[in-house]
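Question thread 4412

I'm putting together a teaching handout and wanted feedback from people who do this every day. The idea is simple: show students a protein as raw sequence, then show them the structure tokens that encode its fold, then repeat with a second protein so they can compare. Below is the first pair exactly as I plan to print it.
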Amino acid sequence: MNRLADATSPYLLQHADNPVDWWPWCDEAFAEAKRRDVPVLISVGYAACHWCHVMAHESFENEQVGALMNDNFVSIKVDREERPDVDAVYMTATQAMTGQGGWPMTVFATPDGTPFFCGTYFPRANFIRLLQSVTTAWGDQRDEVLRQGAAVVEAIGGAQAVGGPTAPLDGPLLDAAAGNLAGEYDETNGGFGGAPKFPPHMNLLFLLRHHQRTGDPRSLEIVRHTAEAMARGGIYDQLAGGFARYSVDAHWTVPHFEKMLYDNALLLRVYTQLWRLTGDPLARRVARDTARFLADELHRPGEGFASALDADTEGVEGLTYAWTPAQLVEALGEDDGRWAADLFAVTSDGTFEHGTSVLKLARDVDDVAPEIRTRWQGVVGQLLAARDTRPQPARDDKVVAAWNGLAITAIVEFLQVAALSLKTRDEGANLLEGVTIVADGAMRDAAEHLASVHVVDGRLRRVSRDGRVGEPAGVLEDYGCVAEAFCALHQFTGEGRWLTLAGQLLDTALERFAAPGGAYYDTADDAEQLVARPADPTDNATPSGRSALVAGLVAYSALTGETRYREAAEAALATVAPIVGRHARFAGYAATVGEALLSGPYEIAVATDDPAGDPLVAAAHRYAPPGAVVVAGLPDQPGVPLLADRPLVDGRSAAYVCRGFVCQRPVTTVDELIAELG
């Protein structure tokens, strides 16, 4: 029976025609397992996952495997991106049992959901033996299976427990975190750790803010080196922009080819802020082209941003992206083909599989003679046209609330910094302006979609697809990321409704997700009860729910002047402070928000009749301290608290600067404003 045909998840739809009698995650599946007295097999993955596809082709499309699963199990297919709560609980169990985790994740559980055996990818022969062994154990060694399950649940409960030591996230602790990151830094290749190497976007955001607050040159150098290494590597798409999920090596050369919305949103913020603070032309180019990638490749008109581009094309990794020297010559001609092979480090030996290479940038193209830059741009255009004739990776086009929130915030920051650059009308301004137009439209589309489709009866839903909202409830990261995005959009547009929506989401989060001692659970108090209630405080591929919520609380408090939201943020950060101090790599977003709180954050209101063109507004954005909020417009606009009772001064525009609810006198010149922000 095909129970997946109406799913909102492209991952579930990929399995709808398997010979496996799949169930979606639902109470009815567990009731069926209880009725039949068989174990539950829970298979967790996501649409862009390469090894999920491999296991599907090897096992789930196989008639023999399907018969074994159907005869002896109730099999449930879960999209980890749609149900991060389910994924978190069973990933904790998998890590407790095996010492590692990943996807596809394969979990055997009792009919009440208690896991008793966990693993990840299994080749077909191994998987068949495992199915047979679990079936035998369930029939002949039931008591031992149940004892094992009880032990796993106890381990999950300990790993997901709230409470524990707290400490203020103060300056010395953030200084220590920056020092710890510097100690773990890869001096040769940039980034942290070895292969596989993931883009450390949240750590880089923290280090940028730390540098801005303290002037620490080491923090800035780590960001600049890592940003350049990634942008020149194969992890970055040298033709169309956008970053792959990770590099399989330590030097950013060969990526795992899936492109995730959340990575590109967070990296857009990194390159945008590096551009703002330093004027680096490489950072400008990468920010521009990453914004264009989001708008061109992931935006769904009339909706939001899709989740990902697949790792595979027609079942083959890199089919769309890899090149040989001969293919370059075929696309470009002899002279340009050889020139491109040298520029992009494409050799006869290859850097990838079967003598192919992933394009990386072997030489600088940002600070070179105009004729070289023109030649490079022409080559990129021709190669992209040739690549477009190849088979293309599939797109996971479900809209995830939290990730769309990250993208909205990133694009708002990009548009603010791009506006500063466009005032000069320098070389490349026309291209930059074109990107800002499409990115602005995509961002507004996404925000309207979240507000009108994902907010249902005052509560946030996790996913939608084709304009239809899914059933899974929003988790804490959804509330935090979307609230932060609505605060950013309020600053960008001056419209009060976005701030009102942010406040409603934050109030729901404070009421429904709170845990003892200032902590928060990842699921609401009225959400589906799993074998444990997840409460992970660490930042991993995306900000933790707790860090995301704190970011929203800090911005909202600064924009409204309501101190209780700041107090909630400080209490929540105190529960994460011990992780920041000991394991900074896994608390990058918490540390980023901590820098904003330590900085103030500054609240900058510019009373003006020309928000787009006023030099005071431009100076506020260019010199804004870490985490500052900036609002510009006519005084006393409805729904804009930061402009209340802040008039023009003698008919002139005036900037009002406050820090931590303590305000300075209004200023009317750019120099005076820069001095107050210094």
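The second pair follows. I'd like the answer to focus on this one:
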Amino acid sequence: MSLFARKNIDELQADAFSEGEHSLKRELGPLNLVSLGIGAIIGTGIFVLTGTAAAQHAGPAIVLAFVFAGIACVFAGLCYAEFASMIPIAGSAYTYGYATLGELIAWIIGWDLILEYLFGAATVAAGWSGYVNSFLKDLGVILPPYLTNPAGELVQAPGSDTWVRKTEELTQSLAAQGVSIDSLPQANGGFNIIAALGIFAVTVLLVTGIKESARFNNFAVAIKLAVVAAFILAGGYYVLTHWGQSMDHWTPFIPQSTGPGAFGFNGIIAAGGVIFFAYIGFDAVSTTAQEARNPQRDMPIGILGSLIICTILYILVSGIMTGIVEYPRLNVGEPIAVAIDATGYTWLAPWIKVGAIAGLSSVMLVMLMSQPRIFYTMSRDGLLPPVFSRLHPRFRTPHISSALVGLVCAFLAGYYDVSELGHLVSIGTLLAFSIVCAGVWYLRVKEPNRPRPFKTPFVPLFPILGILSCVYLMTGLPRIAWERLFLWLAIGLAIYFLYGRRHSVVQRTHHQAHVDTPPRPTYTDEK
């Protein structure tokens, strides 16, 4: 059996438009798809990781990190748009890899996407809990730190009542400000119950149906965009009226390097890698291709539209935030709230927190929506057990896999720190994007005349640039992220060879075709 057996693209296209009890409902239009993309992209990147990436890696040059990550995403997004319009079926990069590079590569992508979405949703939930906990404090509800933080040592951030994880990076950052970390209040985390409950609530919503989930997402995205716009307007006005102070905060724009991944140009690349997983929204859009009403037209709109809008917003927010507050003070779970408090516009702070809660809720929803659909497709291909492709008889959603994903994700969100999860998600996302770019290039060479409703321009230049930029951002991530990635892939390969390869529908089809093909006659010279 061939490890690189490919799916037939014509059969995939036929299956994409089939109707029946085992088919997903086609309910999503172009606005829904753009909204889903924004729902996944605008979230932890703006509301949480912008602050930590600036404080620990890039300083005010966090703006350049978003620019570089956005450029890498443009190349990958164009490749995604070509595949999504040509193969409009659930499964995203997994399906694209199966149709171009073969089963083994598809399995690696699919297993990698589990890392991307499962750990990504847990990362978002950890950030979401910070804003919920801060909002509860405003209402007078004080929860102990061991119920609102994962296991580990905690310190109270200077000038704040926020508890943050005690790390070597934080120790060095505070020392540079003349603050000894041992002089700060100490505590221990236990289990982040708020994050776990958030995942549970979103999972229940997802089981009830795609239309209901999309409506909730549209509502949450509207609130989120309104709050981000309010921050840009209010924060931008503050920066313009306090220009001298903002220039001081932006100087030096690229702080001098203090070590690998800590400031300097290398720090910008490290920050780009850290915040990159915030851009997986257009990948999430492609997982819903089988639920789009007109995927050939609408998928490119959803992918590229959400990418362009969000990149502009990221650059504006990060620039304004570092202009308002000195970047070392942004190493907290709710940096936008800290920035607004620094402006004196205290009336806006509660609304910022509400917007962050709504915004991060939509990110959790999109990520937890995407993961079961990856399982759904892999299960229908025989690479995972049939239970993962079972649909609810009434809601027509993959309810069992959604529930299992929700349980595992709730545990991860409650037990692990946001930075530990974020590095894993970023490196997995970058790997998946690189393979998609390679797939577009390969298929253009292999099947140049195949109809493509949307075509990536300047092939092979753009796919090559996509691969190089993604790999370059991967090099900026810490060694521990690479080690965990290789461990995760090793576990996945073991599952593939022990189960997936033996039950693969494509392998059985290829084997049967080989058996049914009569042997070619052989001829010998007769004397």
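Top answer:
Good format. For the second protein you could add a caption like this: The two ends are 39 Å apart (CA to CA). Residues 520-527 have pLDDT under 50 and may be disordered.
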